[in-house]
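Proteins fold reproducibly. Next comes an illustrative record:
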Amino acid sequence: MYRKLQEFMNRNIVRRLTVLLIPAVCGIFILSFLAVSHMYSRDLIESIEAQTQYSVETASIHMDYCVEGIKNSLNNLSRNSSIRKMAGMDLGNIDYSEYLKHERNLKQAVNSAVYADKNLQDLVIVGNNGYQYEFLSSFYTDITETEWFGAYVDLEKKGFQYILPHDLDYYSKGKRPMYEQAVSVLLPIKEAGEILGYAIADIGIGRLIEMPEMADGAGNIKTYIVNQEMDFYYDVVDGTNHVCGEETFLSVFGDKRSDFVTVGNEFIAYSRMQSNGWYIVSVYEHDDIIRSVRNMQRIGGVMVWASCMLILCVSHLMSGYINRPVHELLERIQAVEMRDFRNVESDYKNQPGEIVLIRKRFEEMVQQIDELVNKVYLDEIYRKEMEYEQLVNQINPHFLYNVLQLIQSKAVLSENYEINDIVVALSKLLRYAMNNQAKIVTVEEECDYVSNYLLLYEQRYTGKFTYKIRLEGRAAQCRIMKFAIQPIVENCIKHGLRRQGGGSIRICAGVQEDMLRISVWDNGNGIPQERLENLKRYIRETSEKEESIGLRNVYQRLKLMYDGRAGMEIESEEGKYTKVIILIPAEACSEEK
């Protein structure tokens, strides 16, 4: 394998550059691209980790700020005497003047707390005696009967309670909350250690969770809020609460207030709130980060591809710069091998110095050889070769023509005019075929040759076929390639006219619509449709086969000589006829080939 590669490279400079330079440079580009891609991916991941952890910590601090402010407001309200009075009085036996006074004080205290803290969305005072007051004044039911109150509130707990975001679907009239979900903070209203009711503050979810956008390329980040007991968590994206199970992010919480942990394919950043012990968690997958790298990889891939193409072009130009003078030198050497010792001037501009030196030394050597050959050998050898070639060219044709003329004379003297006609036709046939100088002939000359050819066949197969040749208008003087019609006529005789008598061949040439149209028609056996299709495909092939070589030869020569502008058509019907049509552009018929 290595030896074959060496042979392949050593054939010319272009291949050596192709095999050595292009793969090496392209390999460097690809390795550089992979290294840059790896560093970019690593830096991107580290950036996302840092920004995500910063975002989670920022959100945690913001929530702590909101909750701490509301805790102070609830603490003040729980100590208000009017609020305690309203939550603890017997509503079935009340002094209305006292009731109205305390309720007015309660409303004033609640309104002051709400207006003082912009994060408060609603504030509710609930008494165990059935009393309930809400700032927005639009509940349709007792808040203690709502689903979230029954599910999350511990009635025995005497300190602050924090309820994960829940739906505010119990508002029916009046002002409605700005946000459809809220986090609730509860503080019991106590008197002498006894719980009289609760002060409940709602923080709109939009006020509380102002999560900054994560780092670019982080993909689909999932954010959760987990309560202190870790028995419930809230999905910020879906806006739903869930019972904690075996979720991966629940197992990473440690003693640190905030941390960034990698578990399998997941990146998890969390931060614990100081105010209520809740956890804020952001989770995203490694694959989501890699997607952002792919854009850079695509751009880099295009750049690598473009660089490889540039290298290929540059190597081609370089090889041409080097190979062109070398190729000229090789052509000059081949010309000298063919005894061409003429002094050839070469343009040495923009050529490597070594090649210029070799070429100059070679030309000097050629001139010396030329002088020696001319002085000693060339004149005598050339003279003898010319005499020999002239002798050969004269003896063979002349000998044949003389013999045919002798036979013709004998036939005339014997009054055997049939033999005379045959000899004359054969003589014309040979003279036409042996004239190697004429590659292009007129249609008239080609048809005369075919006429003599048919005459000989007619003498052989007497009475089996007739023929007719018709030349229309200027078609006779149109120039075509030699032996364009005769192979088609030969096919007519061999493959078409095998019936007993009655066969006919018609040859017609004319110019129609700027095309020379030559048709050869016979009423022979015809060709079956399937075989006709195979024949049409066959003549267009270049592989060697055994049948209809003449037709394919004519078709291929037409294509080559007329640059694909000429063509051949075949029409046939089994048992009736076969027609072969040659089409040549009329303007090409007048060109000198």
Remarks:
- DSSP finds 15 helices and 18 strands in the chain.
